[in-house]
Structure formats: structure tokens, C-alpha cells
Design a protein that fits this description.
The complex is a heterodimer of chains A (about 260) and B (about 260). With about 260 residues, chain A is α/β, with parallel strands linked by helices. Chain A has helices at about 5-25, 55-65, 80-85, 100-110, 155-170, 180-190, 200-205, 235-250, 250-260; strands at about 40-50, 70-75, 95, 115-120, 125-130, 150, 175-180, 195-200, 210-215, 225-230. In chain A, helix 3 (about 80-85) packs parallel to helix 4. The radius of gyration of chain B is 21 Å and the shape is globular. Chain B is mainly α and about 260 residues long. The chains are: A alpha/beta (about 260), B mainly alpha (about 260). Chain A: InterPro entries: ModA, ModA/WtpA.
């Protein structure tokens, strides 16, 4: 008996939520695959690079709204970790990697039979805390001993890209910490613990007002391609393919470029 | 004479043992023994192991200096709100270590509550330093010491302390000559636990102290990064860490902790 009022609140809430999500697609241009809504797409499992967290979450919500009966579940993480999970048999329909090398790891073992499509590119940017307390102007400042510098470790894609740009600029960075992923680097900038760091442009954008970005010419030397592909043993290949199409569609491109990604 | 244990207990116990040990055995099975020498002789491995042992030992020292008095306070005095205090000091034990690292960063970081003054007045900044690793490890490991020592103090008979006091010993002398020796096995057991926890510390360390070879890159951090590129190396590093901890725990257990 006591649960009844709560149930009523719940159902009222879910009705509002339904109404809200129902409204959402009217803002977005009508997606091409809405015709497939006749056959509900069901559960779609997407393994995606951590740097796609914000954009893919948004795309997932839009996709679900456009395709009633579909449910997109994400597993965000470092691309290499995701590739390993896939290699160990993790069930997934779609894989979006932040680096071609990690996609190759998956294609080499026959887990992907289609040719992966590059859907976005990302480039590095110098990130400094608000107000730029270290007065960073370019890559040369990363060689200064008395500045606090955070970089990605070379083992992860952003670290490999950082290495390339430093080589191109002929600068030996004096890093104070080599972090395990780009978001960890960003955190150190956000908290003002470091004076400068190298992260992706999309990360600077996602951090909002706390972090300022400084572009530099050598960023062209290490443009990172993001490939996407449907997995060969996908439990829901049709769903995976539909979400991939949505990512590649005009509305998908709009969300991704608004987040700071370059078109391929 | 030992009785045969009832099957209802034996079965889940056996499953429990398997659950805890099979993953470790599985790792040993996957160990690339042929690459062992090559992977272990990499300079970064020695560096990381030395740093790990040094930081865990220093953290244990810090915990002993601060934790034993704290345990004594909790066990022997009647400070108001002792129950709450006891619960609070054990929080780091159950807190996700990453959360501990974030908390440390917000307090002791360059822009932190306390850290900004450390930086402005003394030019001391703990993140990205070996001292930062020690702080992170001590934060996570200290409750283990406090809990063990407090338990030992509660088990010790206070009448010896009372007798010593009646015979004219000062309170500090009583603590040093009577209390401490009587709970020494508990202190050592706590220190060993504390050291082992510090050695395996990952989340708080990487969040607060960062990762730089030779300065803050301890073994667990190296394992995590090695997993990104060379899983074989990660396994070898893990096995090394496992062997070191098991050997030390076993050696000390024989001597100090009687079953």
C-alpha cells in the first residue's frame, strides 16, 4: 500500500521523461534511417574511445529518440583497452576507436570484416588553466624546467601524438607527469596543478571556461584519425550498422564538429 | 584430534579459495617465462620496483609515527565522539582510492586548501613528487595500521599499565616500557598490512602524485601503462610484485603473527 504514491510519482516522472524525449527529435533534422523504425532495433552495444564520451552519449540519445524501440549502451574507455576487451570476446556491435592502430588490432584478428570508416579527426592543442598563469605561448615553453607540465604517456595515443609534435618542433619536453589517458591530463589542468599540457582540441572545448586552448602549427604533424566499424560477431549487426549510419549522417557530423572534431 | 568439517562449510570455503587463487594462478600460466629475463632487466622495471619499495616503507613509517598514537587515543582515552572518530579514520579503507587522490589534490595540491600556502610560503608542492607518493600511500594505508593496533590495545591487560603507574612511572614511560611492548605483535602485524597496502596502492597515487619514471611511477602504475602496449610486460611486472609481497608477508607472518 505504501508504495502506491511513490509509483504514481514514478509514472508521472516517466511520462514527463517520455514527453521530453519525444520532443527532442523535432529539433534535429529527420534522420534518413527513421524508416527502419518499423522493425525495432533493440539493444545496441557500442564500444567507443573515451574522447567520444560527450558526443556519442548525445548521439545515442538522439538516435534512440529517432528510433523507438532502440537502446544504445556504451562502453567508453581507452581505445587499446577496448580493443583488448574485444579480443577477449566482449560482445559488442560497433567499435569506434581513437586511433587506427587499435582498430587494426581488431581487424587483424578477424573481429571486423568491413573496412573501417574514418569518421572524424582530432588534433592536439595546448591546454592551460584559466588566465594562463604560466604565460605559455607555444610548444617551446614545454622545455622550461620551472613550469609544471603534464603529458599523456607515450603508450597511449595522445602521448604518441604529443611525441610527434615535439619532434617536429625540436623541443624536449620537461614533463612532471605522464598520465594514463587524456582526461587525466585535462584534470591536472582543470585543477591548476600544471601550467600547461597537451590534449585534444575536443577536450579543451569540453572543459569549458576552466581551461584555455592555444593552437600551434606543429599540431598538423599528428592529426589523429578515428575509425568506426561494425563487428563481425555483432549480436545486433543491424542495430550497429544503423547507429554507425547515424554517426556518419549530417546530424551526426553536426554534433561531432560542434565538439571540436575535424571532418575526415 | 581434528574433526571432519561439515560439507556445508567445506564446499563454499573451497569455492572461496578457488575464487581468490585461480586468477593469480591464471596469471602465472599466462606469464611469458621465456621473456622474463629480458622484461625484468629493463631499467624502468628496476626503477619502479625500487621506488615502490622505498615509498611503501616510508609510508609505513609515517603511518607508525601518526597511527600508533591515534590508535592509543581511540583505545585508551575517553575523547568525546570517539565512536564517530573511529568510524571516520577508517573511511579511507573503504573509500575508492581515486576519491582519496582527488581529496588530497584539492587539499594539498598547488591550488589546494592547504597546498597553496605550502607553495607560497615554503615553495613546497607535493603533486608529481616522490613525497606525494608517500602521502597518497600513507593516506590509504594508515587505517589498516590504526585498526590493528587499536585491536591489540583493547586486547591488552591494562592492569600492567596501572601497576607501572602506581610504582611511579610517568605516563610516557608507561606507554614506552609497558604498553608498546605488550602490543608489539599487533603493531608489527598492522605495519605489515599497511606496507602491503601501500605497495599495491594505485588510484590515489596516480591521481595525486601523477606518473613519472623514477619519481612517481611505482610498480602498480607501471603495470597499468604496460598493459596499454605490452601485456606480456604487464604480467611479468604483476608477477614480480606478487612474489615480493607474498614473500614478505609470509616471512613476517611466521615471525610475528601466530595463527
Amino acid at each position: 500500500m505504501r508504495t502506491r504514491p511513490r509509483l504514481r510519482v514514478l509514472s508521472a516522472l516517466s511520462a514527463t521523461a517520455l514527453a521530453l524525449t519525444g520532443c527532442a527529435p523535432s529539433d534535429a533534422p529527420a534522420p534518413a534511417e527513421s524508416g527502419s523504425a518499423a522493425t525495432p532495433l533493440g539493444e545496441i552495444t557500442v564500444f567507443a574511445a573515451a574522447s567520444l564520451n560527450e558526443t556519442f552519449t548525445r548521439l545515442g540519445e538522439e538516435f534512440e529518440a529517432a528510433n523507438p524501440g532502440s537502446k544504445v549502451t556504451f562502453n567508453f574507455g581507452g581505445s587499446s583497452g577496448l580493443a583488448q576487451q574485444l579480443g577477449q570476446g566482449a560482445p559488442a556491435d560497433l567499435f569506434a576507436s581513437a586511433a587506427p592502430a587499435n582498430m587494426k588490432q581488431v581487424t587483424d584478428t578477424g573481429l571486423v570484416t568491413d573496412t573501417p570508416t574514418t569518421f572524424v579527426r582530432n588534433r592536439l592543442q595546448i591546454a592551460v588553466p584559466k588566465g594562463n598563469p604560466g604565460r605559455i605561448t607555444g610548444l617551446a615553453d614545454f622545455g622550461e624546467d620551472d613550469l609544471k607540465i603534464a603529458l599523456c604517456a607515450e603508450q597511449v595515443p595522445c602521448g604518441a601524438a604529443s611525441k610527434k609534435v615535439f619532434e617536429a618542433a625540436a623541443v624536449t619536453p620537461k614533463a612532471d607527469t605522464l598520465e594514463q589517458d587524456v582526461k587525466a591530463v585535462l584534470t591536472k589542468v582543470r585543477l591548476g596543478e600544471v601550467d600547461a599540457a597537451l590534449v585534444y582540441r575536443t577536450d579543451v572545448q569540453a572543459a569549458g571556461a576552466e581551461v584555455e586552448g592555444i593552437t600551434f602549427a606543429e599540431a598538423d604533424e599528428a592529426v589523429n584519425d578515428y575509425p568506426i566499424a561494425v563487428l563481425a560477431k555483432a549480436p545486433n549487426a543491424a542495430g550497429g550498422r544503423a547507429f554507425q549510419e547515424y554517426v556518419l549522417s549530417e546530424s551526426g557530423k553536426k554534433v561531432l564538429s560542434a565538439a571540436g572534431f575535424d571532418a575526415p | 584430534m581434528t574433526r571432519r568439517p561439515p560439507l556445508v562449510l567445506l564446499l563454499p570455503a573451497a569455492v572461496g579459495v578457488a575464487f581468490l587463487l585461480v586468477p593469480l594462478l591464471g596469471m602465472l600460466l599466462r606469464t611469458p617465462w621465456d621473456r622474463l629475463g629480458e622484461l625484468l632487466s629493463a631499467p624502468l622495471v628496476g626503477q619502479a620496483l625500487r621506488l615502490s619499495l622505498l615509498c611503501a616503507s616510508l609510508a609505513t613509517l609515517v603511518c607508525l609515527l601518526l597511527g600508533v598514537p591515534l590508535a592509543w587515543l581511540l583505545a585508551r582515552t575517553r575523547v568525546p565522539g570517539r565512536g564517530v572518530l573511529r568510524a571516520l579514520v577508517t573511511v579511507p579503507m573503504v573509500l575508492p582510492p581515486v576519491v582519496g587522490g582527488v581529496a588530497l589534490l584539492y587539499v594539498l595540491g598547488r591550488r589546494g586548501l592547504v597546498g597553496q600556502y605550502l607553495d607560497a610560503w615554503f615553495g613546497v608542492s607535493l603533486p608529481f613528487t616522490t613525497a606525494g607518493v608517500v602521502v597518497a600511500e600513507a593516506f590509504v594505508a594508515m587505517p589498516f595500521l590504526v585498526v590493528s593496533v587499536e585491536g591489540a590495545l583493547r586486547g591488552a591487560d591494562p592492569r600492567y599499565e596501572e601497576a607501572a603507574a602506581t610504582l611511579g612511572a610517568s605516563r610516557w614511560t608507561v606507554f614506552r616500557r609497558v604498553t608498546l611492548p605488550s602490543v608489539l605483535p599487533g603493531v608489527v602485524a598492522g605495519a605489515v598490512l599497511c606496507w602491503a597496502r601501500a605497495l599495491g596502492e594505485f588510484g590515489a597515487t596516480i591521481t595525486f602524485a601523477g606518473n613519472f619514471p623514477g619519481r612517481t611511477a611505482t610498480m602498480p602504475l607501471s603495470v597499468y601503462l604496460a598493459l596499454e602496449t605490452d601485456p606480456d610486460a604487464a604480467i611479468v611486472l604483476s608477477v614480480l610484485l606478487l612474489v615480493v609481497s607474498v614473500a614478505l608477508l609470509a616471512a613476517l607472518r611466521e615471525r610475528w603473527i601466530t595463527a
